[in-house]
């Protein structure tokens, strides 16, 4: 029996606002892991090829130089095409059991995964990953399996996070390993051997498990309430309050109060301030006392406008904070209203409420929006990254420049 090659594709469907302007949808952190990693775990296969919108091709090639990107659909072989909007936690049995010429689709017909001969993939690609070859046999699942909007990440966060924490290979915490740490609750607590937990740290595992990855540092008087995840090399400052369903990605620095939110890599929220039910990209810096509202005073569901040219949508969520793209910075005392959308490369320096929708590469003050000088932004980012032993590549720079709306 031929084992198909796994290819994860970004079909460009759905709207994700600032979150997917600089990354494929499958690289979104949708729990403790990016979706790609969870798909690989669900299928017990490594991804060998990717298909992404043209604007992301060079970025993906840079990230995965050993993989095929937007391969020629002619030739031999079999491929298991998996939609990068599938979280990999539900219907994995149906996907794993796909035979050649079969597809798993959700109730509205959107494709979750399909097993095709390589030469049959051209029609699938040409049809925008919507049209399947006529001979394809479909297995229809009853519920929504694909994310379509950013708030779906928050809807599915509890289930995805629990699955990721349960599958973690970090060793279980042993009493005495970190003197002075207070632990209670019955759920597993997993602390990497080279993570540092200082005295007076409190870990509350009453409501769910806790995982702290290698190289992380948790400073005195910080409180972690499970389920939560602290990524590799991240630092929690003293008095940080990490509440349930919070994911701190790798190499972040976090203080204040964070609840039910996902932070991608290299993001700083090092000072006081509240962040709840929010999605935050990479290389973001939230200034001291930046506060995010996640609940309307009417207790109605929150409405969000993801882009300047898209309509306002009802999220169906009573609790919905901010959606923040990569490379965003906020000044001290910044206030973000419920359902705020801040696109990549923005600087917010206003004394009142920040704009509900901030378009890419905007410098916002009380005088309004000015286009951010892209050369200055890139110079600043190079300085910031050098402090983390990282660098901005030419591909990264080109991606940032492509976002400019003031051309």
Polypeptide structure, described:
The structure is a single chain. This protein is an alpha/beta fold. It has two domains: 5-147, Spore Coat Polysaccharide Biosynthesis Protein SpsA, Chain A, CATH 3.90.550; 152-402, UDP N-Acetylglucosamine Acyltransferase, domain 1. It has seven helices and 36 strands. The strands form seven sheets. It has a nine-stranded parallel beta sheet. A seven-stranded mixed beta sheet has the order 3-2-1-4-6-5-7. It has a six-stranded parallel beta sheet with strand order 8-11-14-17-20-23, with no helix packed on it.
Task: Write out key terms for the chains shown.
407 residues; Spore Coat Polysaccharide Biosynthesis Protein SpsA, Chain A; UDP N-Acetylglucosamine Acyltransferase, domain 1; nine-stranded parallel beta sheet; 7 helices; 36 strands
